[in-house]
């Protein structure tokens, strides 16, 4: 690690501690050249997940888009922001742990529906109605019947 004061390339770690809820490590270092101390942060390097959309375009996964979609589905429902963030964290972890660096938006939607189904059935139906783009009332009723059948 290059010293920000003198540019010397060697330093020793004086202190290490977790930062940002364990997402980063804060390290206090001492330059072996000039003796001054400085702080560095170590973070896990992640490879971005690319989302293949229905129109075959590609974009980097954006957790905020997923949060916004879930917030709309959960509007006026007894679901906390913390619960929504946990769902998104779990979905993002599944995507990061997958060996695939490119995933379809369909898969992300399925993960979101699975998570919503466990938390709130109304939010699940709301999300599914937008996500699956029901063509008519019969396809919507089929989804509701599936939900009722799986519940019993």
From TrEMBL:
Coiled coil: none annotated. It holds the Pfam family Zn_ribbon_NrdR. Binds 1 zinc ion. One of its GO terms (molecular function) is ATP binding. Keywords: ATP-binding, DNA-binding, Metal-binding, Nucleotide-binding, Repressor, Transcription, Transcription regulation, Zinc, Zinc-finger. InterPro entries: ATP-cone_dom, NrdR-like_N, RNR_NrdR-like. GO terms for biological process: negative regulation of DNA-templated transcription. Its cofactor is Zn(2+). Residues 49-139 form the ATP-cone domain. A zinc finger (unnamed) spans 3-34. Belongs to the NrdR family. NCBIfam families: transcriptional regulator NrdR (TIGR00244). Negatively regulates transcription of bacterial ribonucleotide reductase nrd genes and operons by binding to NrdR-boxes. This is Transcriptional repressor NrdR. It comes from [Clostridium] leptum DSM 753. The gene is nrdR.
